[in-house]
Amino acid sequence: MAEISLRREAESKVPWAGHFDLYAEIIPDYDDFKEALKREHPSHLRVNLLKTTPDSLIPRLRKWGGRLTPLPIKGAYSFTGLERPGATLEYFLGHYHLQGLSSMLPPLLLDLAPGQKIIDLCASPGSKTTQIAALTGNRALIVANELKRRRLGILKYHIERLGVLSTLITNYQAQNFPMRLPDGRPLRFDRVLLDAPCTGEGRHREVMREQEMELMQPWRPESSLRMSGYQKQMILRGFDLLSEGGILVYSTCTYSPIENEAVIQHLLDNRETASIEEAGIEGIKTTPGITCWEGKEFAADMKKTIRIYPHYLDSWGFFIAKIRKAC
Ligand SMILES: C[S@@+](CC[C@H](N)C(=O)[O-])C[C@H]1O[C@@H](n2cnc3c(N)ncnc32)[C@H](O)[C@@H]1O
Q: Which of 60, 8, 69 has the alpha carbon at shortest distance from 206?
């Protein structure tokens, strides 16, 4: 099937037209932002350094017509020319994973090292779990948690395909993840990733691939508020699961401050050992988190969180916060 026939106009399913005007005051260069939404998301992949190297993969994909261009992150490439990028021999062998550039950023802020105990509280389909495994050389204990049973299969598939070891899959509500082992000992982690379910505004482009369309939900005014309620419960549990001195990274692929800065503020208001750390990433143009929204003031340190916009980084819109638990 030709690649072009897999794309269609997003407006037919998602009533987004004019929606982003809500954020016109907080998104810098707003007209450029709207222009960026008219372009489809480029194709990105992450070379799976657990199984191969760019030097080995690039010539192999060229044989299928693929042309790879490096992105500012190690192992990340944009590509053109692959008609079915999820159906090559190299894909099935686990030599690469299809993952948007902005989705590769949250694990980079976890300050990962071999030997750590790490939990990915909302893990499916496993893009970040498998990236964490690669960044720790398969030498960390990772718990990949996912609530929805129907999404466990795809998580397991990617973990196996990409050669990830030392990973346990669990099936809890993140906000109720157990704080104790069955023998009563406390359960704590050195690193917590909360890549929270969200309204997904950052995934909207006017032209999308079929698979991208399936991920989109129609936007409703009450959606952000409802999501924010869950996200606030999840971040408190994620923080409580953290060891002293540990790091929690919170991310969403949405622009709504209600699901981003307001969630971080809720954590600061309820846990005095939480503090925000700088979340910059070399080579990636980011915008600071905001300190005021609809009359509500946020902590000045909210400027240390980052917002990713498609007119500055041609990928999905994202919000990322790096939180430290004091010793
Ligand atoms: C943004 S996606 C995670 C993407 C994943 N981190 C990745 O990089 O591939 C959010 C995931 O959270 C799951 N989820 C929704 N509610 C949850 C909850 N209460 N507890 C745990 N997971 C939940 C969704 O089913 C979805 O798979």
A: 8
Report strand pairing: 141-145 vs 167-170: parallel
pLDDT digits (tens, 9 = 90+) for 260-287: 999 999 999 999 999 999 998 999 999 9
User: Residue 42 gets which letter from DSSP?
Assistant: P
Range of the domain at 156: 20-41+101-325
In a domain, 9, yes or no: no
C-alpha pair distances (Å), 88 with each of 6, 12, 64, 85: 17, 31, 8, 6
The one-character DSSP state at 142 is: E
| For ligand 1, atom 2: residue with the closest CA | 197
What does pTM read for this prediction? 0.95
Ligand 1 pocket test target in 127, 146, 212 with most atoms within 8 Å of CB: 146
**253 part of the active site:** yes
The verdict on 180 and 217 lying in the same domain is yes
- CA–chain centroid gap for 50, Å, is 20
